[in-house]
Amino acid sequence: MAEIAFEVAREWIDRWDRQQEGYLPDREDRFTALIDAVEAGTGRTDPLVIDLGCGPGSLAARLLRRLPEATVVAVDTDPLLLALGRAAYGHLAGLRFTDLDLRRPGWTGALGLTRRADAAVSTTALHWLPEHHLRDVYAELAGVLRPGGLLLNGDHMDVEDTTPTLAKLERALHERATNRRFPREMPENWRDWWDAVDADPALSVLAEERRGRNEAAAHHGSESLHLSTHVTALREAGFTEIGTVWQNGDNRLLAALLP
């Protein structure tokens, strides 16, 4: 894999975080709530945590700043984002990035876990999975989490299929919060960020590898958007207590517990 200098990686990740905040004005609040839940829910200062769809490691780095004794196994299949994360955060003793595709059965066997994990976490990532892959991911997680282990998934999860009027209200609340935080158009959005990456010669090899993987995967965009889809898949996987533990509009932190 092509290497990226620390300074270059930090610049690109800072830009990544800023454009993500344009869609999530309460992004840091959700990070804080999720890490609070890991700390309180696992009851350990040294939890073993799996970060699903970790991207460049924004959540993992924040978790380790709060819980420096933790171990985070960060999983993604995007070679460019993984390279940025390794360059920027590879010095963190408790962090290990792993190039794995969650859609391929048996991915948990390649995590290299030395014990069952205390928690699995994800932010703004699992909605990309089609429903059948989401069910498989949750089922595999149930096999590597300890009894009482937590799944914490922060994302936009719509309730339109069950309560359409409330879904409309939740979206309105989120839009108003976003407009208050960002009253004008964002200086750089998600598409702008990726266009800039593609135009940077220093990242050309990784960008080309990323395009090849995406074409092979036939990625169709956001697919598992409904809260009910996640709740049903978690129940089928054997999780028992399932509920929202933090919420702002349709932006919520869904928690699920193994018996």
Describe this protein's structure.
With 259 residues, this protein is α/β, with parallel strands linked by helices. It has a single domain, classed as Rossmann fold (3-Layer(aba) Sandwich), CATH 3.40.50. It is built from 9 helices and 7 strands, in the order H-H-E-H-E-H-E-E-H-E-H-H-H-H-E-E. It has helices at residues 6-23, 27-42, 58-66, 79-89, 131-144, 164-181, 190-199, 204-217, 227-237, and strands spanning 48-52, 71-76, 95-99, 117-123, 145-156, 242-248, 251-257. The protein has a 7-stranded mixed beta sheet, with helices on both faces. Helix 5 links the parallel strand 4 and strand 5 (145-156). The chain is globular, with a radius of gyration of 18 Å. The model has no long low-confidence stretch (mean pLDDT 93).
Distance between the termini: 40 Å
* Quaternary form: single chain
Task: Report the average pLDDT across residues.
Answer: 93
Helical stretch tally = 9
Largest sheet: 7 strands, mixed
The CATH class is Alpha Beta
Number of strands: 7
> Strand fraction band?
15-25%
Could you please say which CATH topology applies here? Rossmann fold
Low-confidence segments, given as residue ranges, are: none
Instruction: Please indicate the count of domains.
Output: 1
The CATH H-level homologous superfamily:
Vaccinia Virus protein VP39
Tell me the strand order in the biggest sheet.
3-2-1-4-5-7-6
**Large-scale geometry:** globular
Structural class: alpha/beta
CATH architecture: 3-Layer(aba) Sandwich
The amount of helix comes to 40-55%
N-to-C series of helices and strands: HHEHEHEEHEHHHHEE
Rg for CA atoms: 18 Å
GO molecular function: methyltransferase activity
Domain Methyltransferase: 49-149
InterPro entries: Methyltransf_25, SAM-dependent_MTases_sf
Keywords: Methyltransferase, Transferase
